[in-house]
């Protein structure tokens, strides 16, 4: 009798959220596999990000912070959560949205409409900079000239500099991006596969560019993509669903919270090499959810041999941007475009301004390969 009572109590308890033990669970957390209710999910999701911010001293009171906003789920959830945490915990930050218009018709023009709505929804001032204004070229123009190979190299290099220029325009102290744990694990793996020691040594840092114009932070460093996706999406929670199925059916913390975000992929995305790494990490995650955190930990624990030659930081002779070469990558790529020799900038033709310099310093071949094969530049950190 006692045994059956105990069994039925245990069964009852298993139907309750394992954190509050009061409400029915509506999801299984991808990170911990705990079955929890919607309210506890929001609480742990936001609290973990708050703890990352506090433990890593990401911000100081009074700082101006730009949120790199593309209109996609990561940056939309970041803008929402950071606004909430700033208010709730009195961080004392002045927050801004900073968007880059690459000039991709049918993609960025639509996603920027979402960011403009977010500006009103969250009450955050928005600054938009375009490639056309900064470089005289849109990505549509560039793709017309170079086709769909290496387009992301141009886009990524230009975006990185455009974000810094936007941050300078806004006079912010920090720039935050929505890179999540999956992005970072993927980048660790790619940098190992490419033998790109310089990037490997910095890709797991939560703050980068402290020696550059504007430090960049990644408050979502330990946040799983599947949880960002679910944060807004627990609408039909009558069943305990695995996150995989929720992601599949509803797409996104953004959907749960009914956040307004844009979910279409870039029309110029090649996605081959990076896509393979991404799928591999998703497979590992299915077998062992901790795999993502473990890859990040491995990246953090790498020690670069003191004999390894690292690029020396200087400034571009042409535009003054940080560069380890005579001209920065953006200037080299732009020069190639303007001269009608776009391949010159991606290391396929001789005679570029940095060509001689590269010969002098005997730069490892891996550096050129890394630039050639880089995919979506939004992930270039
Ligand atoms: Fe630019 Fe990313 Fe599109 Fe490539 S996939 S063209 S980097 S927005």
UniProtKB/TrEMBL annotation:
Cellular component annotations (GO), alphabetically ordered: cytoplasm
Example GO biological process: tRNA wobble uridine modification
Keyword annotations: ATP-binding, Cytoplasm, Membrane, Nucleotide-binding, RNA-binding, Transferase, Transmembrane, Transmembrane helix, tRNA processing, tRNA-binding
Subcellular location: Cytoplasm
Taxonomy, superkingdom: Eukaryota
UniProt domain tRNA(Ile)-lysidine/2-thiocytidine synthase N-terminal: residue ranges: 65-226
One of the Pfam families matching this protein, by short name: ATP_bind_3
InterPro entries linked to this entry: CTU1-like_ATP-bd (IPR056369), CTU1_C (IPR032442), Ncs6/Tuc1/Ctu1 (IPR000541), Rossmann-like_a/b/a_fold (IPR014729), TilS/TtcA_N (IPR011063), tRNA_thiolation_TtcA_Ctu1 (IPR035107), UPF0021_CS (IPR020554)
Pathway annotation from the record: tRNA modification; 5-methoxycarbonylmethyl-2-thiouridine-tRNA biosynthesis
Entry's transmembrane regions: 234-256
UniProt-recorded Gene Ontology molecular function terms: ATP binding; nucleotidyltransferase activity; tRNA binding
Positions that bind ATP: 68-70, 74, 100, 178, 183
Region (Disordered): 348-381
Domain Cytoplasmic tRNA 2-thiolation protein 1 C-terminal stretches: 314-344
EC number annotated for this UniProt entry: 2.7.7.-
HAMAP family: CTU1 (MF_03053)
Recorded family membership: Belongs to the TtcA family. CTU1/NCS6/ATPBD3 subfamily.
Purpose: Plays a central role in 2-thiolation of mcm(5)S(2)U at tRNA wobble positions of tRNA(Lys), tRNA(Glu) and tRNA(Gln). Directly binds tRNAs and probably acts by catalyzing adenylation of tRNAs, an intermediate required for 2-thiolation. It is unclear whether it acts as a sulfurtransferase that transfers sulfur from thiocarboxylated URM1 onto the uridine of tRNAs at wobble position.
Name the record gives this protein: Cytoplasmic tRNA 2-thiolation protein 1
Source species taxonomy: Eukaryota, Viridiplantae, Streptophyta, Embryophyta, Tracheophyta
Gene name linked to the record: NCS6
């Amino acid at each position: 009798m006692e045994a059956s009572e105990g069994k039925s109590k245990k069964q009852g308890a298993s139907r309750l959220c394992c954190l509050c033990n009061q409400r029915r669970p509506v999801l299984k957390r991808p990170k911990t596999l705990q079955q929890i209710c919607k309210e506890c999910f929001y609480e742990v999701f936001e609290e973990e990000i708050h703890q990352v911010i506090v433990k890593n001293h990401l911000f100081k009171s009074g700082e101006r912070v730009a949120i790199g906003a593309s209109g996609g789920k990561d940056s939309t959830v970041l803008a929402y959560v950071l606004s909430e945490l700033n208010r709730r915990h009195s961080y004392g930050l002045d927050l801004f949205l900073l968007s880059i218009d690459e000039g991709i018709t049918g993609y960025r023009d639509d996603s920027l409409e979402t960011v403009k709505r977010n500006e009103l929804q969250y009450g955050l001032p928005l600054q938009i900079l375009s490639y056309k204004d900064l470089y005289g070229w849109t990505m549509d123009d560039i793709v017309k000239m170079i086709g769909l190979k290496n387009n992301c190299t141009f886009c990524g290099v230009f975006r990185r500099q455009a974000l810094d220029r936007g941050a300078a325009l806004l006079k912010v102290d920090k720039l935050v991006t929505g890179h999540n744990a999956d992005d970072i694990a993927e980048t660790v793996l790619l940098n190992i596969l490419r033998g790109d020691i310089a990037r490997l040594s910095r890709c797991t840092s939560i703050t980068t560019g402290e020696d550059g114009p504007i430090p960049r932070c990644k408050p979502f460093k330990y946040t799983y993509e599947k949880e960002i996706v679910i944060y807004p999406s627990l609408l039909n929670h009558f069943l305990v669903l695995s996150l995989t199925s929720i992601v599949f059916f509803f797409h996104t913390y953004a959907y749960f919270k009914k956040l307004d975000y844009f979910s279409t992929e870039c029309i110029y995305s090649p996605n081959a090499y990076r896509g393979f790494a991404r799928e591999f990490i998703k497979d590992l995650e299915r077998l062992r959810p901790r795999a993502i955190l473990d890859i990040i930990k491995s990246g953090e624990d790498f020690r670069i041999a003191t004999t390894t030659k690292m690029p020396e930081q200087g400034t571009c002779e042409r535009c003054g941007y940080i560069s380890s070469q005579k001209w920065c990558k953006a200037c080299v790529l732009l020069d190639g475009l303007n001269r009608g020799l776009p391949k010159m900038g991606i290391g396929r033709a001789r005679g570029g301004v940095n060509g001689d310099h590269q010969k002098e310093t005997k730069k490892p071949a891996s550096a050129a390969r890394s630039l050639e094969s880089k995919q979506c530049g939004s992930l270039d950190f």
